[in-house]
Amino acid sequence: MLAELEMPPAAVGDAQTIISELATNAVVHGDRERAEVWAYLSRHPSPRLTLKVFDAAPWRGTGGPVPADATALITGEPASDACGGRGLMLVDALTGEAGGSWGVHPTRGRLGPGPVSGKAVHFTIPLPEASAAVLSPPVPGAVPERLCELAGVRGLRALVSLGAEATVVHFGSGLWVWVKDGALLYELPGHGVVRHPQSDAVEVVEQMVRLCEEGAAGGPAPRAPSRDLC
């Protein structure tokens, strides 16, 4: 998959190392029975590959989980005789070299008999502009249905309402996505309006799931729809 995206060999190697470190961390520090690895492409703000490792270990609030590796990253290098503690330092270094980013957020699983709450450690890697050709545009008119389908897998019941200028998909808990002028728009607390191309349906639903889980954990509540978007 990575080679098909025209990624340089060095970037492919770094991505493989990062995902290996994150998967190991999930098994050692998380819930190994519900560990999942996800990958998807998006165009906003530029073509990029996102990889996530999910596990069902409890979310520890807005600060995120603090496994041994993360503690080492925050406090400095571990002792020279430490058996571990360098995994996320390596992730941070390799992701930075690739021009990407990484982090952790609450979310829900995709696999299994039903959606389970937990956390995902993720990283992104920029892709060459030519890789955008891999992202096929959605079929016109099917985008709201696609959003509902993706949300349903994650345990969110989405409702569609048709407006004069935009279609609004309501995800509950004060979460809305506007399908308008070939774009997907939503309001992100602290960041204002975020605009994605319609091909970024997976990423947009990921954000809706994250916001829903953060709200359940006492995070910032989304605002009501802006009249400027409707």
TrEMBL record:
GO molecular function, one term: protein serine/threonine kinase activity
InterPro entries reported in the protein's UniProt record: Anti-sigma-factor_SerPK, HATPase_C_sf, HATPase_dom
Record key words, sorted: Kinase, Serine/threonine-protein kinase, Transferase
Pfam families: HATPase_c_2 (PF13581)
CDD domains: HATPase_RsbW-like
Domain Histidine kinase/HSP90-like ATPase stretches: 3-95
Protein name from the UniProt record: Histidine kinase/HSP90-like ATPase domain-containing protein
Lineage start: Bacteria, Bacillati, Actinomycetota, Actinomycetes, Streptosporangiales
